[in-house]
Amino acid sequence: MAPPHPFDPLSPQEISLAVKYIKDAYPGHNVIFRVVTLAEPSKAQMIPYLQAERLAVSSSKPPAVVPRPRRIAHVQFYLGDSSDFREVRVDLGSGERLEESKLEGKHSYLDETLMQACEKACLADQGVREAIELLELPEGAVVCVEPWTYGTDGMRDMSRRLIMCYLYMRLSSHGDANHYAYPLDLCVEMTDELEVLGIFNLPSGVDDRYTPVTEGVRKFDRSKIHGSSEYHPDLVPDRRTSTKPYQVVQPDGPSFHTDGNLITWEKWRMRVGFNYREGLTLHDITYDGRSVFYRLSLSEMFVPYGDSRAPFPRKAAFDLGSNGAGVNANNLKLGCDCLGNIKYFDAYLHNTFGDPVKFPNVICCHEIDDGILWKHTNYRTGNAVVTRSRILVLQTIITVGNYEYIFAFHFTQDACINYEVRATGILSTTPINKGDSVPYGTLVAPGVLAPYHQHLFSLRIDPAIDGYENSLVVEDSIPMPLDDPKIHNPFGIGYTTTKETIETETPLGTDITKARIFKIINENVRNPVNNMPVGYKLVPHYSQMLLAHPSSLHAKRSEFCSHPLWVTRYSDRELYSSGDHTMQSFGGEGIASWIKSRASSPASNVRNQDIVLWHTFGTTHNPRIEDWPVMPAEKMLVSLKPVNFFTGNPAVDVPVSTQEKNKSVLVDDGERNN
Amino acid sequence: MAPPHPFDPLSPQEISLAVKYIKDAYPGHNVIFRVVTLAEPSKAQMIPYLQAERLAVSSSKPPAVVPRPRRIAHVQFYLGDSSDFREVRVDLGSGERLEESKLEGKHSYLDETLMQACEKACLADQGVREAIELLELPEGAVVCVEPWTYGTDGMRDMSRRLIMCYLYMRLSSHGDANHYAYPLDLCVEMTDELEVLGIFNLPSGVDDRYTPVTEGVRKFDRSKIHGSSEYHPDLVPDRRTSTKPYQVVQPDGPSFHTDGNLITWEKWRMRVGFNYREGLTLHDITYDGRSVFYRLSLSEMFVPYGDSRAPFPRKAAFDLGSNGAGVNANNLKLGCDCLGNIKYFDAYLHNTFGDPVKFPNVICCHEIDDGILWKHTNYRTGNAVVTRSRILVLQTIITVGNYEYIFAFHFTQDACINYEVRATGILSTTPINKGDSVPYGTLVAPGVLAPYHQHLFSLRIDPAIDGYENSLVVEDSIPMPLDDPKIHNPFGIGYTTTKETIETETPLGTDITKARIFKIINENVRNPVNNMPVGYKLVPHYSQMLLAHPSSLHAKRSEFCSHPLWVTRYSDRELYSSGDHTMQSFGGEGIASWIKSRASSPASNVRNQDIVLWHTFGTTHNPRIEDWPVMPAEKMLVSLKPVNFFTGNPAVDVPVSTQEKNKSVLVDDGERNN
């Protein structure tokens, strides 16, 4: 078997090997494995390796002799219990342990094993049972527990991991009945050792406060019971029958080819990666043999809620850093998610004992048709030429408790990369007394409040536009002045562009009034036709930034959420824009802190350097009742488009659309099929 | 045969009848027909008619006896020649001529007949031939003429229609060779009587000016000749073969049903209209029997160029008012534009003699799959439920000289309507001397400048949200204050929304920093679950507005281009946001003028009234070289989404996605098909 590519995730054997080395190092200790993942080689090592590789591909000669980077595992584990959290890098060849350190005051993410343990412990707790008793729930009610990470609010000692258990109930014996339709007036604070710290009533009236249950009894209001909050087909059997089948047929198979984690499609070539935290990552992306991006990944996301009443400020989830996009990735075959010819990628992660665990079908690779790519009709000849746009989709879907996120990279034939995010799933609800309403939430069912919240994503863009030294240019479109004698603008209609090349690390703002675009350019490579530097532009998804006050813990913990764009100097260890450890973090660990730490040092220079762009985007989600009981996907789209990178439309050679190939079917007037 | 529906376009017979009435009224005159189209009945007439019709549909009883509005044709014509431009409405029943008037100082649009006549006359003109001679064009060069409407710049008497003829050449005998690759240093000013007013050199160097050819000779620079600017498959025979066929199969046929211009699909019901100017229009749109929109249409578009040198300020096209989206609509079968099961709609327009002319396949109706509509995985049971999004597309494509626009209304199963615009086609180029560059254009080929320009669209949204009295609410998401004792925000993370109901006609601005949304609500109808007024929200396409100075003729002529959103009181005769007559207009005729004319009168009240929204959006198009020689479609999307209109997700009953229906195909690792 060929040796793994340096970007390939750890194989099950490599995971086991890393685990063995750690266990051997701590004989007689109980080692709880939290992270065993590939430590990607430094870029300094990878650049010559990839250049040799590309040369070999283009010249079909064997690769030059470039040292293959060592396989190194990045491991995080608890020694004994979670009070002793450690990190180490393990050389899988020699077994050597590198940079071992204690992670004082840091906490690992919350995983499903712990969540399920919390649920059980919570329901088994005598105090909780008594509190539930007092609610006098209806016959047949099944209480469900939603464990949440504790969003730091300064109300508790943070030396241990804390889990917030929000209680719900379902009234059906069906396991998929929607318990979010019945949020209970109860919540439980627990430690990760499953010790109950307190049992509380939630604020359920406009002026209620977060209070220990001992302060008073609140019976469940039976008038909240309703029958309209289900989504599962078993419980919504009466479904529309008007939607006829729609199939994608690819008689000659897909246009892509895969070889392990290497994907080639049309003129694109890239490597797929996957890890517990970011989930899907993309590496060494080239078009027609030219380097475009070194690495693309979702760096972090933050979901803060706008309800100011305790304990709801604790609902502030870092779904990557504190939950993990990889460990929460769906098996896409289960959901029957795609059409046409689909290639699935599996991933190998591990359990807390360090045993490798297969996560099947966490990434799907397929093609979609996106309508017209380009068209022109010459009215003189009446000849129309039209091409259709084929897109390669690399998709992963995660479930984080109530919500689903669909993350997809789209590669186009005209050399664009689009990153599409869809938010779906079920709203996280809280109880509200019948008749009450609050200005920071939507009533979606009787006694059910869907609080306002934001979803803010941080897309990490590590460019390599025709090389690894790039610059960022901010380009605005502005009117020409009317009264400048040096400017010829007699009709007052002239406009031009201003271009500012960014010199040092900084956050940046979007500006629609100036049609601002952000160009990643290579100042060392010029377009042969118009002599402009080659580049790619970022077309942002315009979004509101964080609403929480800059002095709040939310703002301090989510530094990336203050600005839509950031540019930093590349550093091997800077992957997560809210810091490596978001669980119960206090802030000061993210992208703004990095920039501050290097301010006015040469390391902050980003002109003609190895740079990284970070795009913050998302949605201020003030729920519609139409988002209930399950939310129609809300789409967000970010684009990376070539600008002066080619000498013309790279898709000019796409085959012309023909009926012979399309086999479309004419529908006669009045045709009906039911 | 059933009588036409009041919204049905004029039939060929009705066109001929209208024409006959006019000809009879002017015996012995040469009548040149410019417009013979349906005069849509007043809304006052239509409301009771549609309500009776809906009642009949829902109760399947025969419609109540509501007077059927008279069929009336709206006619514009020249009497004798274009110096006598007239307008009249003709009652097709009685032949009665209503509101006949002379359109003093107004001009009709530029059509293909006149464009082709101009091309011929231009090339036949002795002076033009001599000027071309002086260029000393290469052997086999074929000169092409691009006639343009004259964007008012104050340099010419405007009593007649003027046509700007820009000259290009192609070097291939192939009729579809790209002549935009060779813009010549020549342009000709003509009247619509084909009289040449002047022959000029274009500014081709940085400091050149617009000068009569008599002032000097400019030979064509043969070093501009290049071979890389073609798009037609005959001329780009070497096309990529890696794109495998991709077909959409609908074994049970489409999910839509058509009956004449009536379309029903899923729970939607609407009527399709079509006219010479707006092209595709939609009428009486309902979901599940509830009224949503009375009329949706593209009202206008403006394409001003940013090159300040005469004569380029004249390049400022109103592609609807001065060219016409209907008369320039593509025959969609020619282009083989869609996949799956497609229903085409034909249109009937007319020639200048008044003879009906069939425009086949100007609208296509088909379905597309849009990926995941909603999904949720219950991690407790491991059960995933996923539905796919089916969309009904109503599409029309227009060619206006060099450019193509693809206009599509998308109807979704979750009751949204999206309006998608794609801009494609070929850049309008001007000559530039080798070695020169200007700050308001991109060099796309040797000696070829693609000037900066904007595309600004005006979408007219005539809502009828559960009735015809609606209001507009501007809703912003804003942080809760930190220091207001009346506000409980101890953690500084609270946020809420402000809602302003608009009282009088006004332009409005978007504001991403506030996540501003625009809600069209019906204050008289409340959501039964949360008691909020029913509504739809507009999700705008964020765009830069007009760059031309407010004092410029561009700005005065394109009033809608100053703000992204406008709300007006409904008026039967206000359909075009730059006024009824944009050809060589001087301004003062558009949406801002309407509002000014009614300011502080009761007619300006828009709260709980019959209102119209106008959304201005588009793109500042500073060409990339990748847009050449044919432009990959640039997409813009506007959405209309229900907010508290339903009691929950209207798509909760969409059938679950299953492999049995999807028939997807698993791709094995390493599979290749070439």
Describe this structure in words.
Two copies of one chain form a homodimer. Chain A has 674 residues and is mostly beta strands. Among the domains of chain A are: 12-102, Nuclear Transport Factor 2, Chain: A (Roll), CATH 3.10.450.40; 260-426 and 453-621 and 630-658, Beta-galactosidase, Chain A, domain 5 (Distorted Sandwich). In chain A, 11% of the residues lie in helices and 40% in strands. Chain A has eight helices and 34 strands. In chain A, strands 11, 12, 13, 14, 15, 16, 25, 28, 31 and 32 form a ten-stranded antiparallel sheet that branches. In chain A, strand 19 and strand 20 form a beta hairpin. The termini of chain A are far apart. The model of chain A has no long low-confidence stretch (mean pLDDT 95). Chains A and B meet through strand 10, strand 11, strand 17, strand 18 and strand 19 of A and strand 10, strand 11, strand 17, strand 18 and strand 19 of B.
List keywords for this structure.
homodimer, 674 residues, mainly beta, Nuclear Transport Factor 2, Chain: A, Beta-galactosidase, Chain A, domain 5, ten-stranded antiparallel β-sheet, 8 helices, 34 strands, 11% helix, 40% strand, globular
